[in-house]
Amino acid sequence: MKEQKGVFKNLYRNLITPILQKDTGVDAEYLTNFSLSLLSFSSRKQNWPVISSILSNLNKEFCIVDKRLSQNICGINFCNPIGLAAGFDKNGNAVNIWRKFGFGFTEIGTVTKFAQNGNPKPRLFRLAEEEAALNRMGFNNRGAQNLVKNLHEQSIPLKQNRQNMCLGINFGKSKITGLSEAKEDYLTSLKLLIPFCDYAAINVSSPNTEGLRKLQDPVRLRELLREIKTLPNCPPLFVKIAPDLSFKDIEDICKLINEEKIDGIIATNTSLDRLGLEKRKIEQTGLLLSEENGGLSGRPLRKRANKIIKHIHNIDRRIILIGVGGIDSPESAWERICSGASLVQLYTGWIYKGPQLVPNILNGIIKQLDIHQLSNIKEAIGSDLQWVD
C-alpha cells in the first residue's frame, strides 16, 4: 500500500501540470475530453481486475474518511462537503469514478432535453497565470435520453438502491427551445432522470445559452419551479444563480425560494464580469478578455462568489447553500463554509491543482475542526471562523 502512495498525484504533476502552466499548447477542450474518455472507460470496466486495482489505489490515495465531515442535508447523506461541480462530466460518462477521487458528491450535466453540439470552437480557454478559464461551451451534451442510457451502461443503481454515492444532476434549457417553452424542456429531462438524482440543480444562469438568464426573473422562475415541484418523486431542488446579479435581485430570488419551498441555491455560475482582467489577452484568438464572449471561472471569482454566499446566509439562514467559484485551496473552502455554504464544489481549481486538492481540503478542514474544537462540519457553517495556520 505504501508503494502506491502519491503515484497518481505525481503522474498528474509530471504529465498534466506542465500543460496547464501555459495558455497555449494542448487545447483545453481536447485535454478535458481525452481525460473523460479514460475515466469513462474505467467507469464501464471497473470490474476488470486491472481497472479494479487502479481504482482501489486511487481510492486509497485520495479518499479521506472522518465522521465529522459528514452531514445529512435534505435527507441526503454527504460523507464530506466537497463535490465535483457540473460542467466537467456533462454526459455522466464517469459516474462510478468521482468518489474514488475523494469527492463527497458529484453533479453531472448540464443536461438538456435535446442533444446539442454547443457553441462553435474554440470555446474553452486557459488563463494559466490567473489559474482561471473562459468558457462558452453552450451546454454541449448528448441529451437527457442518452444520459439515462449512460447511467444504465455504468450499472448506476436508482437512488433508493445506492450506497456511498451522492449524485446531483444539473438541468438546463435546450438552445432551440424558446423561453415560452422552457418549462416543458426542463420537465421532460427531469421526468427521465429523477429516478437517478439525489438532488436536481436548475440551471438558469449559464451565460452561454442566449436568453437563459432571463429565467432568473422571479416571475418566470416561480412558474418554472412550481411546475417542477409537482413532478412525482421530485428530488430536493437547488437553483444555480449567476454571480453578476445585484444583491437586490438575489434577495428577490431568496424570497421566492422560501415562498415556493425550494431547498437551496448553488452560488455561483461563471461570470460575464472580467473581474479586473479586461485587458488580458487570449492568445488563441488575439482578442482581449473584454472582447470575448463566455463565462469566467477560477481564482478571480473567489471574492465575488464568497460575498454572495455570505449575503444570502446573512439575510436568510434557512436557505441551504452550495458554494462554487474560485475554490482552490483548503483556506478558500473553509472560508466559503464559514460564510454560509453547507457544501462546496470544485472544477477549475481542481484542474489546476490536481486531484490532491480534494484530500488537501478535507485534511485542512479536519485541522480547523480540531483547532476550533468543533465536533462536526455543520458547526462551522456561517460561523465566520477564520482560518488558523
Q: Number of domains in the coordinates?
A: 1
Kindly report the oligomeric state of this protein. Answer: single chain
Please report which band the strand proportion falls in: under 5%, 5-15%, 15-25%, 25-35%, 35-45% or over 45%: 15-25%
Helix/strand-derived category reads alpha/beta
Shape: globular
CATH architecture: Alpha-Beta Barrel
Topology:
Elements: H1 7-15, H2 17-20, H3 28-44, H4 49-62, E1 71-73, E2 76-78, E3 82-84, E4 105-111, E5 124-127, E6 132-135, H5 144-153, E7 167-171, H6 182-193, E8 199-203, H7 218-229, E9 237-241, H8 247-259, E10 264-267, E11 281-282, E12 287-288, E13 295-298, H9 302-315, E14 320-324, H10 330-339, E15 343-346, H11 348-353, H12 357-371
Parallel strand pairs: 3-4, 3-15, 4-7, 7-8, 8-9, 9-10, 10-14, 14-15
Antiparallel strand pairs: 1-2, 5-6, 6-13, 11-12
Helix pairs in contact: 5-6, 6-7, 8-9, 9-10, 10-12
Description of the molecule:
The protein is an alpha/beta fold. The protein contains twelve helices and 15 strands. The chain has helices spanning about 5-15, 15-20, 30-45, 50-60, 145-155, 180-195, 220-230, 245-260, 300-315, 330-340, 350-355, 355-370; strands spanning about 70-75, 75-80, 80-85, 105-110, 125, 130-135, 165-170, 200-205, 235-240, 265, 280, 285-290, 295-300, 320-325, 345. The strands form four sheets. Strands 3-4-7-8-9-10-14-15 form an eight-stranded parallel beta barrel, surrounded by five helices. α5 (about 145-155) runs parallel beside α6.
